[in-house]
Amino acid sequence: MKRVFFLVNIGCYLVILAYVGIVAASAVASGYPWTITCYNCGLCRQSCPIGLDPYGFIAAATANDRTTMMQAVNVKLLPHEAALLDRNMPLVNSAGQRVDINNLTPEQARDEVFVSRMQARYAASFCILCGNCERICPIKLPIMTIIKDYRNAASL
């Protein structure tokens, strides 16, 4: 019986090791290998004056996927602007009701909507580059590097 548990233990460790290896390889491939050191303490999230979640940029860089969805709670757009970015972006009007960007009435099309989540590549263009996220980070990760790179890639 002990041998079975031993083999299950080894199998579990190998699966965990493979997962960590894939995450590390993805972070290295993205060009931001330091992103795997972030432990998501949440301090950067609290420091953003416009409500972006800087950890979303770190998660996108770790996954090497700029389309990773991230929190963006105070970003306001007109529906046609949101449609240009992403037609599947979750939107909420000022009354707190979900807005379907594909079925808008003319009145809804004129009202600003709040974005709750957006892709990291688009969120970078809304960042005001204040640097609060970097200043408050307890391990001093260069988060602005990712944001600036994503912003430059979006402008190309």
Average pLDDT confidence is 88
| Coarse morphology | globular
Low-confidence stretches: none
Element-by-element helix/strand order:
HHHEHEEHEHHH
The helix fraction, in percent, is: 40-55%
Strand content: 5-15%
Q: How can the largest sheet be summarized?
A: 4 strands, antiparallel
Number of domains: 1
The number of E-state strands comes to 4
Report how far the terminal alpha carbons are from each other.
61 Å
Number of DSSP helices?
Answer: 8
* Secondary-structure class: alpha+beta
Question: Which strand order do you get reading across the main beta sheet?
Answer: 1-4-2-3
Any idea what the radius of gyration is?
A: 19 Å
Please tag this protein with its features.
156 residues, alpha+beta, 8 helices, 4 strands, 13% strand
Task: Provide an overview of this structure.
- Helix 6 packs across helix 8.
- The protein is α+β, with helices and mostly antiparallel strands and 156 residues long.
- The chain is 52% helix and 13% strand.
- Strands 1-4-2-3 form a 4-stranded antiparallel beta sheet.
- The N and C termini lie far apart (61 Å).
- The chain has one domain.
- Strand 2 (91-92) and strand 3 form a beta hairpin.
List strands and helices in order, with pairings.
Blueprint: H1 2-30, H2 43-47, H3 54-63, E1 69-77, H4 79-85, E2 91-92, E3 98-99, H5 106-110, E4 113-119, H6 120-126, H7 132-136, H8 143-155
